[in-house]
């Protein structure tokens, strides 16, 4: 997707629904902090990404892998709180 299209779409509509997902990532020694995700059996970090219904990213949070998806979801929403419209819904 081109950047101009991204910003045009994001500025024309108010987001009413966010989809947040997490991905555990194996990493090397470059991470300052890392831990073990027992569910995925991965040692490393976890990315929590919030996108709208068009797939446009709104916010990103990176945590250690042992953070639950729910806590990561709440952290992601906390980072975006000032930019969210009051009617925005998320399944956290």
From TrEMBL:
Domain Transposase IS4-like: 15-85
One Pfam family matching this protein: DDE_Tnp_1
Molecular function as annotated in GO: DNA binding; transposase activity
Entry's transmembrane regions: none
InterPro entries: Transposase_11
GO BP annotations listed: DNA transposition
This protein's name: Transposase DDE domain
Organism this protein belongs to: Cardiobacterium valvarum
